[in-house]
């Protein structure tokens, strides 16, 4: 399982849990009919996204996935080189400690870099919306009497 898949799965679980928690409240409130106290609010519509936005989004996501895979391969290579280098320093405790410290620093940097890529991927996954268009509120209906 990839990290992106796990993030999407956890996000879906959270949304589902939120819906399940809020559904009974919404059903209870829907059953109570109330007369409108204030005039209706103006409607806000979103204009369609730019024509090439979906394609650009797909390309950007693919580029970010490729970068993430490349970084993961680089991490594996770095770890293998580090393990090979440690063998040369068997018995030199101070040298091994320095190698371990350098490895930890590299891992922290790699994690931060991967998190940045994942954040950018998540941001790219949201399709850009067009500009909001505000419509005037409909006039209240009066019954003749």
Note down, in words, how this protein is organized:
This protein has a domain at 53-124. By secondary structure, it is mainly α. Strands 1-2 form a two-stranded antiparallel ribbon. 1% of the residues are buried. The protein has helices spanning 3-30, 53-88, 93-125, and strands spanning 43-46, 132-135. It is elongated. The longest helix has 36 residues, at 53-88.
Mean pLDDT: 74
Radius of gyration: 27 Å
The helix-and-strand class reads: mainly alpha
Count of runs of 4 or more consecutive helical residues: 3
How is the largest sheet built, in terms of strand order? 1-2
How far apart are the first and last residues' alpha carbons, in Å? 68 Å
Question: Helix fraction?
Answer: 55-70%
Q: Main sheet? A: 2 strands, antiparallel
Number of strands: 2
Order of helices and strands: HEHHE
Shape: elongated
- Please report which band the strand proportion falls in: under 5%, 5-15%, 15-25%, 25-35%, 35-45% or over 45%: 5-15%
The low-confidence parts are none
Secondary-structure map with pairings?
Blueprint lengths: L2 H28 L12 E4 L6 H36 L4 H33 L6 E4 L10
Antiparallel strand pairs: 1-2
List keywords for this structure.
145 residues, mainly alpha, two-stranded antiparallel ribbon, elongated
Short overview:
By secondary structure, this protein is mainly alpha-helical. The protein contains three helices and two strands. Helix 2 (53-88) runs antiparallel to helix 3.
């Amino acid at each position: 399982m990839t990290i992106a898949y796990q993030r999407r799965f956890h996000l879906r679980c959270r949304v589902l849990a939120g819906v399940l928690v809020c559904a009974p409240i919404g059903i209870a409130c829907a059953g109570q009919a109330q007369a409108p106290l204030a005039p209706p609010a103006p409607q806000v519509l979103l204009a369609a996204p730019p024509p090439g936005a979906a394609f650009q989004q797909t390309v950007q996501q693919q580029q970010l996935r490729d970068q993430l895979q490349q970084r993961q391969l680089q991490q594996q290579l770095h770890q293998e080189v580090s393990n090979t280098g440690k063998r040369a320093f068997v018995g030199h405790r101070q040298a091994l400690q320095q190698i371990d410290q350098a490895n930890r620093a590299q891992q922290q940097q790699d994690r931060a870099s991967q998190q940045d890529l994942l954040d950018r991927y998540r941001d790219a996954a949201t399709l850009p919306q067009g500009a909001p268009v505000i419509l005037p509120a409909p006039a209240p209906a009066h019954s003749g009497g």
